[in-house]
Design brief:
Elements: H1 4-23, E1 35-40, E2 43-48, H2 53-77, H3 84-111, E3 124-129, E4 137-142, H4 148-156, H5 159-172, H6 180-194, H7 196-205, E5 213-216, E6 221-226
Antiparallel strand pairs: 1-2, 2-6, 3-4, 5-6
Length: about 230
């Protein structure tokens, strides 16, 4: 049987976290790059924004190198005809169009998969925007505090899309043209690149773990914990 004192202590901790978060919520409306950290009344508060430049550059360079190699592979697999270059460009255009719309939509849906069947399900909202005519962008946000394990799962669930693209590419390589596999691997690399900020957030909160309470605003992540 749980002692009433422990329940009260846990509730007080949650309210304290929310209070500290409210008190130190500075620079509202300004997107943070990297992390912003403060301390008050024995509590630590941290806001995690866009991935730090060094973290982003490493993932971008590795992804770009992989995409160049894969593009050369696709180019070599396309039959040598007078339409060779046009065929190559058309294949990549269609792939980019599919990922920039269906891929982005699935990415956000997979983020929210972790909230299904929990108290967070009705507090989760996905916002899609079409900033460009042919490309979709989006982000999700959750109202209220989130537990560590659920948050990490939500951040990493888009890896399901990456793995699915690799599996579909491998299976299709037995029946479809030779360019199919490297093209699907390219889309999988794009999926990893799309998770840059997700990986960064996980790297910043892993040492805090279950000690913290987390608020995911979609653009930024806030954490309050007691050392």
């Amino acid at each position: 049987m749980i002692h009433p004192g422990k329940i009260k202590s846990g509730v007080n901790h949650v309210f304290a976290c929310a209070s500290i978060r409210s008190d130190v919520f500075l620079n509202k409306g300004i997107h943070v790059q990297g992390t912003l950290r403060k301390q008050k009344c024995g509590y630590q508060w941290m806001r995690v924004g866009h991935a730090a430049a060094r973290f982003t550059i490493v993932i971008m360079l590795v992804s770009l190198a992989a995409m160049i190699v894969l593009a050369l592979w696709v180019y070599r697999e396309i039959p040598e005809t007078e339409w060779h270059l046009i065929y190559f460009l058309a294949v990549y255009f269609v792939a980019a169009l599919v990922y920039a719309n269906l891929g982005v939509w699935l990415h956000e849906q997979l983020h929210c998969l972790a909230f299904r069947g929990t108290v967070h399900e009705k507090r989760t909202h996905i916002v899609y925007e079409r900033k460009y005519l042919l490309a979709l962008s989006g982000h999700y946000r959750v109202t209220g505090a989130i537990d560590y394990r659920i948050l990490v799962r939500a951040l990493l669930d888009p890896l399901i899309l990456v793995v699915s693209l690799l599996v579909v590419g491998w299976l299709g390589s037995f029946m479809l043209p030779g360019w199919w596999l490297p093209l699907l691997v390219t889309m999988a690399v794009a999926g990893v690149l799309d998770m840059t900020h997700d990986f960064y957030w996980v790297s910043q909160i892993r040492l805090i773990g279950e000690k913290g309470k987390y608020w995911d605003t979609g653009r930024e992540l806030e954490v309050v914990w007691k050392e």
